[in-house]
Model the fold of this input.
Amino acid sequence: MLKVVQAHDRALIAEVETDDAGALERKLDAAVRVFADRSGWLQPHERIAILRRLADLMEAKRDHLALQIAREGGKPLPDAIIETTRAIDGVRNAADELRAFAGREIPMGLSAASEGRWAFTTKEPIGVVAAISAFNHPLNLIVHQVAPAIATGCPVIVKPAITTPLSCLDFVAMAREAGLPEAWCQTLITDDNQLAEKLATDPRIAFLSFIGSAKVGWALRSKAAPGTRVALEHGGAAPAIVDRSADLAKIIEPVVKGGFYHAGQVCVSTQRIFVHADIAEDFTQKLVARVESLRTADPVRSDTEVGPLILPREAERVSAWIGEAVGGGARLATGGERLSETTLRPAVLLEPAADAKISTQEVFGPVVAVWRFDDLDDAIARANALTTAFQASVFAQDIDVALRAANHLDASAVMINEPTAFRTDWMPFAGRKQSGYGTGGIPFTMRDMTQEKMVLMRRT
Done:
């Protein structure tokens, strides 16, 4: 049995039965059999109806789902409510996408050899999907991986994070209540990494969606069976550039939200902040004052702004990174104290060394680092210096500065006067370099979970 505990105080929430190798084999066999029966594939109108009923069921359980996210994942309740709302909208987004989800005409008659022919493509589901998910958005990430599979007609086996399985189990149960046959959406509950790897690398898997550690994700890609399509979503140390033209009265709140949302446990959390020297002192004072006012407490409270880290060992690791940075010459402007087994006071570090872990690796905790710069191109070069790249921000009223930074930052998305963590569920979401592979976002995942088939007809 898997013990599921509250992230905040480690109190037991539930015990969940786990799966073994035999269960995985039965689930893979069921998924393969249902996909092999083409006459039994769910039609688009049936999938739309199921997704819409699923969204309605989630709407009816909104409060339960939000509280569960706060308890098992430690996300503050106000943010958990937002996550639940997004997840419901994401399911509806997948249903709506099907109305225009179609193939295309391939032009014929462009050569003498192609005269008298007509060709078009259709979209077919790629096959069985393995979805391995992460703890930090325990409902919405499941939606991003599973709703596109339901929409496109792919059987899916989803393995949630072992710390946050309850949101996934609820979602899958509601999908079945909405009319989705069991073989089309199954869970794998296990804390056995070898069993999870067996799911990901099984030759019967056509599409692997992995959200989590870069080390694990890239290793799974290297072991995936030939022909398996792979999507990886990892993280990075997202940079934000604050130009001297920025309106400090307006940007402190988004910078703080970007850095401390869900205690920094977001793959695009703002971590490295480069501030023009002309405003660095004023910016830092305002940033520290706002960070010190953040309400760090039990995530189920309606006024909590920063909650716990997911595990005690993560709090220990982040504390060690802060200590290493200070030992290497950084100044700790505020925070960093251990408030509980899993909770740290939000921290701001000033000018850590270039080779400190906080400067080079994803901290995945409630810490931001601030450096001064005099030259924009130097700030851009420092922002681009890592082997990871995902989303980035530039805060500026000077449009030339904003556009130059947007053009030169190595990022899949550059937010101007918005935090690095900004996301809507229908926009493309992709890591570059070591930060990921493929493009997330519900419409883009639906595209990747299908393959085109061309049909050619000749007039006789």
Notes: The chain is about 40% helix and 20% strand. The longest helix spans residues 77-97. The mean pLDDT is 97.
